[in-house]
Write a structure and sequence with these properties.
Strand 4 and strand 5 form a beta hairpin. The protein has seven helices and ten strands. Strands 6-7-8-3-9-10 form a six-stranded mixed beta sheet, with helices on both faces. Helix 3 crosses helix 4. Helices cover about 35% and strands about 30% of the residues. By secondary structure, it is α/β, with parallel strands linked by helices. The two termini are about 25 Å apart. The chain has a single domain, classed as P-loop containing nucleotide triphosphate hydrolases (Rossmann fold, 3-Layer(aba) Sandwich), CATH 3.40.50.
Length: about 230
């Protein structure tokens, strides 16, 4: 089994009114290829900070973070941007779609940055939007889509670059039960059938129930790391 994330002694300290606050405190973590993992914990436990460090969106104060064997701390900001572009897909709570672009254009945006050919972009976008059940919505802009549909576009966009894994930060937080279940069904299928690794930051029990591994944080430390049989939708 291939290790995609290797975190050793990860600590992140913020200065709040000249008082050091440990958002993440000495975390050791390995995540293997094909995992469907939820990082959980109460608000302020450090789960989003840890996810951001794994994704190269933030740097640790101390410790080592390796993704696919690459030590992220050794990369410059420009190298880190390029690394994220080629290796990591992101799904955010607030969708983060570009409002003036259609579903098709939002999905292919990463591939444009990667300078992929138009033929390759068109083929992959059509395939991805079909996979997330939005092939008939590709010319719709975000304001013409429901929250659940927007999040499915975000998933398609995250997959477009063929990343090593996808980081999903509270992806169901703004969705109703039906939309959340539908989204989780899509993600679970992509994980099972295509071997795509998903790492969630969440407090949503629906996500926790579907995960095969649940890592619990409290006060920036891992207090539990459990593998489980996921519940059916």
């Amino acid at each position: 089994m291939k290790t995609v994330v290797e975190a050793t002694g990860i600590t992140k300290v913020y200065d709040q009114n000249k008082i050091p606050v440990h958002a993440v405190n000495g975390v050791d973590l390995h995540i293997e290829d094909d995992e469907f993992t939820a990082i959980v914990g109460p608000s302020g436990s450090g789960k989003t900070t840890l996810l951001n460090i794994i994704g190269g969106l933030d740097r640790p104060t101390e410790g080592s973070i390796k993704v696919n064997g690459h030590e992220l701390n050794s990369l410059s900001e420009n190298q880190l941007i390029d690394f994220r572009l080629k290796n990591i897909g992101f799904v955010f709570q607030s969708y983060n779609l570009i409002p003036v672009l259609t579903a098709k254009e939002n999905t292919e945006f990463i591939m444009l940055l990667q300078k992929r050919s138009k033929e390759e972009r068109d083929t992959r976008v059509e395939q991805l939007l079909k996979e997330v059940g939005l092939e008939d919505k590709m010319n719709k802009k975000p304001t013409e889509l429901s929250g659940g549909q927007q999040q499915r576009v975000a998933v398609a966009r995250a997959l477009a670059s063929k990343p090593e894994f996808i980081l999903a930060d509270e992806p169901t937080a703004n969705l109703d039960s039906h939309s959340a279940s539908n989204l989780l069904d899509i993600m679970a299928r992509l994980n099972k059938e295509e071997g795509i690794t998903f790492i969630f930051s969440t407090h949503d029990q629906r996500v926790i129930d579907r995960a095969r591994r649940v890592i619990t944080l409290e006060d920036g430390k891992i207090v539990s790391d459990v593998r489980q049989e996921p519940k059916a939708s």
